[in-house]
Amino acid sequence: MGFRFRKHIPGLFPKKVHRSELRLFLGKLYFQWKRNFVWLCEQKFFAKKIVESKLIEKEFPIFIVSHNSPIYRKLKDVPMYLQENKKVNLSIALQKINGILLEPDQVFSFWYLVGKPTKRKGYLPGMQLKNGGFVERTGGGLCQMANLIYWMTLHSPLTVKERWRHSFDIFPDSNRTLPFGSGATLSYNYIDLQIQNTTKQPFVLHIWIQNDHLNGKWRTDREIPYSYSVYESYHAFHAEPYGGYTRRNTIRRKVFLKSTKEIVDDQLVTENIAWMMYEPLLESDQRKNDPTQ
């Protein structure tokens, strides 16, 4: 679907609010402690058991969905060493996630499994998006793993319990293959990705790095009757009265019955809104002049 340009519709998107560093720090502290309290009280519901790598395919022979994404991307003004460090960070985190067994009614929580990414654990400075720009933070780059897991989950019968979107669109599209806003952002520990198994069969998450790509699969022990197609039903740039542009889109999911290929449901997945940090008209012209588009 092509881009559209729309004027602001009153009441749909508030003016950007700038909060003091102290307020942001205290708010972050409050939500981190709140998350720790929930983990303590509800720990029996969170997935913890890891299936050994050599047993994953044997015990869970059916893979529901697979996906991969390149670890290295050309991003304006982003030093390449941050992407080298991201690969290290992903390698450390996946050791806590690869093979996680998600039994019926259990919840997968990214941060519950990975824990706080610290220098002591071997994590390096990587790129982390913040307030419309990027900063170097220990453990930066783990959002790529959340993006992968979230996208795969949308193609499975599992339920996304918690997912956060980016508030800013920082970089123009570069060889984008998935719809805008189809990822998930992270910030330890209160901005999490959580997935619940509301089915009656177990699932295993298989994550690995190969040929500079992050790879993933959701696997299970028997076939499921449905398949899924995720698509973008709306996409536009909106000029805001406060200045600047927002980028908006709507992502939906069609559910097919495998035996007949009949569409049994067409579900709203999410509606994304992000402040743009580049000129949308320039990006649109670049796309028109790009013979690969």
TrEMBL record:
Pfam families: VanW (PF04294). It comes from the Bacteria. InterPro entries: Glycopeptide_resist_protein (IPR052913), Vancomycin_resist_VanW (IPR007391). PANTHER family: EXPORTED PROTEIN, EXPORTED PROTEIN-RELATED. This is Vancomycin resistance protein. It comes from Leptospira bouyouniensis.
